[in-house]
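Entry:
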Amino acid sequence: MIKIYHNPRCGKSRDGLKIVEASGLDFEIIKYLENIPTKQELKDIISYLNISPESLVRKNEKIWKEKFKDTTMTDNEIVEAMVTYPKLIERPIVIKDKKGVIGRPPENINEFLAS
């Protein structure tokens, strides 16, 4: 089953959800600001995306700029920051069969679901 980590207030995330809905595949919506991923879930997501933790951070978020921007952080510390401040997590994220994609731009989801 497909999982989409979704923020309904985000236009790109809503666009991504429309793509997943149009695919006709079974999916689960995870509103990650309400159901915050655990540290291990976030590490798994990062592994499925095959990226570094820092690549999953929304660096234009006010929280990042105020608290973390010019600091040196380990991968573990970055994951902890995203768990503490889930707004830092890039969105939308689509996971299928232990692989994933960040839906920025949302068209990335089309390519991912077609593969």
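The chain has a mean pLDDT of 96.
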